[in-house]
Amino acid sequence: MINETYKKMLQGKSIIRELSEYATARGKEIGYENVFDYSLGNPSVPCTDSYTEEIIRMHQQENPMTIHGYSPSLGIEWVRKTVADSLNRRFGMDYEARHIFMTSGAAGAIAHAVRCVTKPGDEILTFAPFFPEYGPYVNLSGAVLKVVPANTENFQINFEAFEEMMNEHVAAVLVNTPNNPSGIAYSTETIRRLAEVMERKQKEYGHDIFLISDEPYREIVFAGADAPYVTKFYDNSISCYSFSKSLSLPGERIGYVAVNPRATDADVIAVMCGQISRGIGHNCPSSSVQLAVAKVIDDTSDLSVYETNMNLLYDALTRIGFEVVKPGGTFYIFPKALEEDACAFCNKAKKYDLILVPSDNFGCPGYFRMAYCIDTEKVKRSIPVLEKFAREEYGMKF
Amino acid sequence: MINETYKKMLQGKSIIRELSEYATARGKEIGYENVFDYSLGNPSVPCTDSYTEEIIRMHQQENPMTIHGYSPSLGIEWVRKTVADSLNRRFGMDYEARHIFMTSGAAGAIAHAVRCVTKPGDEILTFAPFFPEYGPYVNLSGAVLKVVPANTENFQINFEAFEEMMNEHVAAVLVNTPNNPSGIAYSTETIRRLAEVMERKQKEYGHDIFLISDEPYREIVFAGADAPYVTKFYDNSISCYSFSKSLSLPGERIGYVAVNPRATDADVIAVMCGQISRGIGHNCPSSSVQLAVAKVIDDTSDLSVYETNMNLLYDALTRIGFEVVKPGGTFYIFPKALEEDACAFCNKAKKYDLILVPSDNFGCPGYFRMAYCIDTEKVKRSIPVLEKFAREEYGMKF
Q1: Would an 8 Å CB–CB cutoff place A293 in contact with chain B?
Q2: If contacts are CB pairs under 8 Å, which of residues 133-172 in chain B contact chain A?
Q3: I want to staple A383 with a disulfide (CB 3.0 to 4.6 A). Which of A316, B101, B178, B202 is the partner?
Q4: Threshold 0.80, pTM exceeds
Q5: pLDDT (tens digit, 9 = 90+) per residue, A10-57?
Q6: Parallel, antiparallel, or unpaired: how do β-strands A332-333 and B36-37 relate?
């Protein structure tokens, strides 16, 4: 009586994982330093010294019963208060501890937020290009994910398509800014307009429509980018955060849900998350990790390497003749492929040991993603290879 | 459009939590040392020095990118292998890494196991007295929990009631041994007979029936107790473990699913868990905690205090005249109340600052649970108070 739904999912393959495995295998043949592996979005900088020092101090000095004791199901009260205070300081919000729910990273945050504000059968809209895991995150909750086609001009929102797809079954809209895979941050103008449409549709349909904002790249924003705090613009909003990128702690699975204090039922959403977690087997992130992260709440790893890498790649790609929108943050760039079939394009790139991810799974065919969370020295070495590839395979002249 | 199912759950109150809060408040009035708080099942011994030393060493010496890097969704391969090897050594099993799935404690393990082997609408049977969180764990997965009445003679299984309740919709049986709240370990004879009934029913109904074994108290077994490893007795079995009690790390949320290599689809169940985790927002326990626990896999905290406390309480309770079955493990004891209404009984005990949990929520009315994971000195001081309570309120003579 094995569950067939989950068993069938085993047949699905992750193209990103396949490419990453290919890169590792190829690295064993020719040396990994010779594989230009742009496949995986894994932070390439260490966590802060402050985090490491705090974990060591805590384990040396604190009572083990305190640091390893059960956390309340919503998270350790002091940690929730510290998160709220930090957000208030940085973004001029008025969160209190009761609006914060500690989670196992952004995935855990989205799993709870989606269940809070939808019932099975409801629709959630997201915008292409989008992180493909949104599919299982949403669909296995019982809600249905629908994808608004991309605005390929600048990867802001395609509002025409969005308004067309809005209907009374839409219970939530899921945004990701700065965006994986496009690297684009939604501008103040985009978020204002999104809020305006959603306010209008709430009135038209006579029910709440929640804005779920997935923000793991919030701290990786480049010079000049307009990347406002989404929650400020729309009352019925829930922010989903992860420290995996800002503190380079992806394996520690630590993040939170922050409920806009002006949202409908703002006072019960975090408590509901606690009930949801009873049903899905989540019971807080690690207590010691909660405590250590709260102690270094406003620190970030040295994230400047991502901007350095972005500028190197953006300059090279535009020089070669790629059509590409300059990223405002993250560690991704999303150029148009040099032929219609992005899979064919990325396959050809493999011959040059360039590992690029075709965009089909991101809901926006014809593009490719480069995850430039790698050494700057390797980015530099990859540029002549990119040039050779474009010249030999596509006759690009530059 | 707040989800009403979860919102309604907010009205439910946890009697254990209420009693624990009462004990804390009362402690502020009269000093917590004067409150005999037997409400909460929180380990009362520190984690092992070996664990603390390993966490410190790792953070001092290892590359942060390694210890905090993304864990594969099934858990770190070396950790899974270490768990398998340890179980094989200790219980004569033949697990391989591919049978192990790392989880956020036993709650996470059960959430995955239940979804693997049931579909919505299927029944799962468990045996009273039972851990009340099984309700949300099972029911929010879409399966339905049914509770087989207790065998109050010895708190082994009530086989007559079990056979009556078995039907073709039963997809799994969920056991917890040693048991919260009874403290009883199922004997070899009990587990043999359980396996025999289940084998027979599998044949009769023509489908698999899985045995899900919840084993957080596996390492807390007292002298003379017959507490065999459940999985050895039944092929279609899944063991759900947590290190929260054995290593006293409840807040770290670390455990695993171990799939019997002889189960139907044994090779895909752990991989299915990885797919399920995409849908419920679980993405592995903390990477550094996984690594540290694996390094000290066969260690346990000093658990002997629980047996000391149990013997003190068992002797006192029987001397006073309570009807009580001697626990074989855990840190719980489950005597019969001195009146039919266990809530009234526990309310009267509060006057003596004895905090006892009535058994109604455990599916076995008329009893009470004492969680004796507290200082032995306090257990000793509580005995004259128990005597006074029984004498004054119920005229017990001893």
Answers
A1: no
A2: 133, 136-137, 139-141, 171-172
A3: A316
A4: yes
A5: 877 778 888 988 999 999 999 999 999 999 988 999 999 999 999 999
A6: unpaired
